[in-house]
Amino acid sequence: MELRIDRQAMVPVVQQIVDALVCTIHCNQMMPGTRLPSVRAIARINSLNEFCVVQACERLVAQGVLEPCHRAGYLVSAPASVVASDAGWIGDAEFDPCHSSCELQLGAGSLPDSWRESDDLAYAIREVSRTDMAGLFNYSSALGLPRLRQQIQKCLKPLDIHVEDSRILTTDGASQGLDLIVRTLLKPGDCVVVESPGCPVLFELLRLHGISMRQVPRTPLGPDLATLDELFAKHRPRAFFINSFHHNPTGTSLVPEVARQVLKLAREHDVLVIEDDVYADLHSSCGERLAALDENVIYVGSYSKTLSSALRVGFIVATAESIERLASVKMITSMGTSGFSESVLACLLANGAYRKLVQRQRQRLNNDRLALLQLLEDAEWEVFGKPVGGLFVWARSRMGDCAQVRAQARRCGIVLSSTTAFSSEGTVSDWQRINVACAGDPRARAFIQATTPDRPQAF
């Protein structure tokens, strides 16, 4: 029984063993009464301490998943799904309550729990609780916590985005930021241009507000400029939403010459550019942002992707006039943001802990990305753009039969993203968003290897 244990993760080893055992029981569909290998065997195969294995098994006994067998180890007592948490969004846009939390979501939109680091976060929470009582009980100001906006201002300077902190508005993550922009600056019936493939959450948000969408194809260098020019001229859109660096879902980044042409077209056709750069901190070099080239670009960032999905803090950079309007709507719709969350993030930015965290994340992602790209090449998958940073790789199997690929994924305990999630028009695609941080899982490797075109398949 081989378990995936990440000794670099901040998640305790015992908890990793618990999670791995639950996944093994679920994916192998072990029936009640099935005997697990002995504690000694599990420990030996996975180079673990026997005491840690016993602790993990006893936790599962307490949860009703295992039952002890006198002098004979442990038996499966109930399906592992009884301890599964609520299902999440699959591919950012497909909710299916039948999915179990112990299935590997290969196209997940954020870092897995095993990558999250709690020590610095826990320290910052204690520090804020000790020194900032107002942050525990009160709303933040309309623009957001001043010292946090000052820290964000410093973080933007290496990206050549030089703004006063009065032009920065904090939000409950990038999702609220985009929602505020759509609510405030657009109206039902307006037309906007979005990238294809693109972000499913953005598509759903625009539909919710009655906004009409037109698609521009994403290339490895950025949006297709000829199509973009045609769409701007024909439909006179109010805005263009673009992922600049480590695009969701392709992982590609905007190159400088394309960035300048995008802005040129936007100025010629009077189109508002909204730059979504939520994966900025996973970029190894600075790059050239649209907001650095034109102060009229609205720039959206977030710390939820790297620090914590639960600690919702994002921000918007815009002109002073736009910030004033956005802040007004923010106060009407949410009474402000969490002063506590903003204080915790400000602490992490000020003491340097956040900077060191993302440095570690980038290094791990770089190593895992190289391994994934080699694995995909060996399995003869087609890769879009071969990203050099960020969280995603956009690829597809050359087997040619999408149904067979998805069936094989299920056999390996993997949930793939929806085939229509990344198109605003619901177009079916056989391309898959692969989360680099999830691809090192043995189930992911087994799945990709099993889809090699000339390899016999077990369907």
TrEMBL record:
Keywords: Aminotransferase, DNA-binding, Pyridoxal phosphate, Transcription, Transcription regulation, Transferase. In the C-terminal section; belongs to the class-I pyridoxal-phosphate-dependent aminotransferase family. Coiled coil: none annotated. Residues 11-79 form the HTH gntR-type domain. It comes from Pseudomonas putida (Arthrobacter siderocapsulatus). This is Aminotransferase class I/II-fold pyridoxal phosphate-dependent enzyme. GO terms for molecular function: DNA binding; DNA-binding transcription factor activity; pyridoxal phosphate binding; transaminase activity. The keyword Transcription applies. PANTHER family: HTH-TYPE TRANSCRIPTIONAL REGULATORY PROTEIN GABR, TRANSCRIPTIONAL REGULATORY PROTEIN. The keyword Nucleotide-binding does not apply.
